[in-house]
TrEMBL record:
Name recorded for this polypeptide: NitT/TauT family transport system substrate-binding protein
Keyword check for Membrane: no
Subcellular location: Periplasm
Principal place of residence: periplasm
């Protein structure tokens, strides 16, 4: 009996030691996201399906609500990695950063906004925007730059062909439209689908489809962090790639169920509708590699909007080493 108890005690000690060892090997990564959105579904899949854990990472996610706040967090060492629009790294570089912010893994590759009409339009034509009131996004932000770029592509001058409203705060744009401001509005999901379900608006076009591929949101970090934590960054990128593949291989319904705990205030059918829409238009990048064509398209859009401080070479702010290693490309 004593021998059996002794062996049981020894087994307990061994299991406890192994568990403690595994816990000590878990690496903490502080991740700041610019906003909390279904647009970032693969990230939440990586969390919910345990892909970060499989790589030995403990990812602490914080929503920083805004590109400027996200970059402040990264630059001040309040976070290790940021998920934000690639344009922010260009702004920082143009200011003369001594520790460049490097884009190392792409999450989304189209704009995520939609054109919503107050009235139902069976066969929408972009020229129908002329002479209307258009409630756009904040000036200088990527959604607004894409919005203006698309309008110009369709021979519409945002300054003279319509009344462009840009002075409404991002969080208040949906309520402004709902209360009667604007004939058309540029909205992110899930608000666009919610309005459609409630009969308050009708989705007539996608800015993401019209603008082409761009590195809309990417994971980025200081160059120094990438050098000092190369193995951690590789593990992080591996988990993201696993999640990207999982999203591609599974139905919108399954993805919606996986990430639903992240959006407790949004009905499951809306989450599914949004995911299906983003999947159909190719918004979710299938791998974390940010290619040069997309980078150049981003700068073309910024330049067209008059918001590009300086043209930055692809090699200066993009590092695809980790993404290429984990994908084998």
């Amino acid at each position: 009996m004593k021998k059996w108890v002794g062996m049981l005690f020894l087994s307990f000690i061994m299991i406890f030691s192994l568990t403690a060892c595994n816990q000590s090997q878990t690496e903490k990564v502080r991740l700041a996201e610019v906003t909390h959105s279904i647009f970032y579904a693969p990230l939440y899949v990586a969390l919910s399906e345990g892909f970060f854990e499989e790589e030995g990472l403990d990812v602490e996610l914080t929503t920083t609500w805004g590109g400027d706040k996200t970059m402040t967090s990264l630059l001040s060492d309040g976070s290790d990695i940021a998920l934000v629009g690639s344009e922010t790294s260009i702004y920082v570089e143009a200011q003369g950063s001594t520790d460049p912010i490097i884009n190392f893994a792409q999450l989304t590759e189209t704009d995520g906004t939609f054109l919503v009409s107050r009235e139902k339009i069976e066969e929408f034509q972009w020229e129908q925007l002329k002479g209307t009131t258009f409630l756009g996004q904040r000036k200088g932000g990527m959604p607004q730059m894409v919005g203006e770029y698309v309008l110009k592509q369709h021979k519409i001058d945002p300054k003279s062909d319509l009344e462009l409203i840009q002075n409404v705060d991002f969080a208040n744009i949906p309520s402004a439209f709902a209360s009667g401001t604007g004939d058309f509005v540029q909205l992110f999901e899930p608000q666009a689908s919610i309005f459609e379900k409630e009969g308050k608006g009708h989705i007539v076009a996608s800015f993401g489809t019209e603008s082409g591929k761009v590195p809309y949101t990417t994971f980025m970090s200081k160059e120094s962090y990438l050098k000092d934590n190369a193995e951690t960054v590789k593990k992080f990128t591996t988990a993201i790639y696993k999640a990207q593949q999982w999203v591609q291989e599974n139905s919108a319904s399954d993805v919606a169920k996986s990430i639903a705990p992240q959006f407790e205030d949004t009905e499951l059918d809306i989450i599914e509708t949004v995911i299906e829409r983003y999947k159909e238009q190719g918004s979710y990048a299938q791998d974390p590699i940010l290619d040069e064509k997309e980078w150049n398209n981003l700068q073309d859009i910024m330049e067209e909007a008059g918001e590009l401080p300086a043209r930055i070479d692809y090699e200066t702010l993009v590092n695809t080493t980790f993404a290429e290693e984990v994908t084998g490309k």
